[in-house]
Each structure stands twice: as structure tokens, then as C-alpha cells.
Amino acid sequence: MKPTAERVLDVAEDLFAEKGYQAASLGDVAERVGIRSPSLYNHFRNKEALYHAVLARLLEKFNAPLRELQEGEATPERIRGWQARLVRMHIDNPNLARLLQHEALSGGPGSELIIEQLFKPLIESSSSAMDSGVALSPSASRLRPWIVMGFNNIVMSYVTMAPLYRGLLDIDPLGAEAAERQVEFITRLTDAFWTSGLGKEIWRR
């Protein structure tokens, strides 16, 4: 059996993703873990500390592919591989996307952590990867963050909206087959971008 602290994190992750920070309670967590509420304080000092621990664990996991991408040259092929891996990860574990949606819509104490550990590294990495040492036009430079946010929004909104698509599709929208279709869609979209005027302007290799 997993250590209690790890089981608490697993349950809290599911609850925060399901209900959001505001609606989830430590009593809910303790009940699902099968322990008394006061026992939670042996592992986490309060609800906010537990929430931050859940977020930090998720962000560490989902940032790993980006760190690996940064270890070598960010070629279009490696970027496609990173995108495909990220799509599959989000579909395998939709909790991060759902938790971020709750944070955006109803608030929570994790915004700063999310910005610093998820969004800033994505945007900073894109600037480094796209920088060919040639001056870009002001419009191309200005749109870099929007390109990154656009990809991020496509992936995460698909995951959070997937339950509504179940009645429309002939497969589970969060299943393995759907994941590969989403990967194909993202890959084709990326390829179309690289061959567009803006893509060529940004990626001057």
C-alpha cells in the first residue's frame, strides 16, 4: 500500500480537479482516504498547503517533456514529438487541465505557482526555440506568446470538454484511439503553421 501522504495527494488531486479549490474540503479528502480529518495535519498543515503540493506534483510531471526538449536543439521534428507526448499525457491524466480550469474560473491560491512553473517556462522556451538569431518583425515577435497559449488552450480545452463529446463520437474521447486522433490533428495543425507565412517568418532556420 502507498504511504498515507501519497494516498492523500492522489485523492486530493482527484477532488480538486473535480470540485475546484473552493468547493473541495479536507473532510472530503479524509473520508475518501479512509482516515480521520485531524490525521491530515500530520502530513499537510492546511488545505492550501495540500493544494500547493498537488499542483507542484502535477506541474513537475507535465514539465518533464519540456525539460527534455530543452536539452537538445528544438527542431520542428522534436517539437512535434513534445506536442504528441503532451497531448497523450493530458488525455491519460486530465486532472491538471480540469484543475487549471477551476483555478481560472473560480479562483484559488495556485495562480502564481501555475504562472511561474507552467506558463512562463512554456513561453520562455518558445522564444529560445524560435530565435534563429535573425531579427523578427514586430508582429511575429508580438504573437509568440499567443502561439504558445493557443496550442495550450487547444490541448487543455479538449480534455475539459471531453465529457460533453461522448454522445457525439463513436469512441471514448479520453480513450487511446481518441488520443491518437488528437495527436494527428495537433501534428497537422503544427505542420500547417510551419508552412504558413507567419511560421516561416518565425522559424528562420
Would you give an account of this structure?
This protein is an all-alpha fold. Helix content is 75%, strand content 0%. It contains nine helices and no strands. It has helices spanning 4-23, 26-33, 47-70, 76-92, 95-106, 111-130, 138-165, 176-194, 197-202. The protein is globular. The model has no long low-confidence stretch (mean pLDDT 89).
What is the strand and helix layout of this fold?
Layout: H1 4-23, H2 26-33, H3 47-70, H4 76-92, H5 95-106, H6 111-130, H7 138-165, H8 176-194, H9 197-202
Helix pairs in contact: 1-2, 1-3, 1-5, 3-4, 3-6, 4-8, 6-7
Poorly predicted regions: none
The proportion of residues forming helix, as a percent range, comes to over 70%
Indicate the proportion of strand residues. Answer: under 5%
**What is the count of DSSP helices, taking H or I runs of 4+ residues?**
9
What would the average pLDDT be, to the nearest integer?
89
- Overall body shape: globular
Cα end-to-end separation: 52 Å
Main β sheet profile: none
**Elements, N to C (H/E):** HHHHHHHHH
Number of strands: 0
Gyration radius from CA atoms, angstroms: 19 Å
SS-based class: mainly alpha
Concise overview:
This protein has 205 residues and is mostly helical. The chain has nine helices and no strands. Helices cover 75% and strands 0% of the residues.
Features:
205 residues, 9 helices, 75% helix, mainly alpha
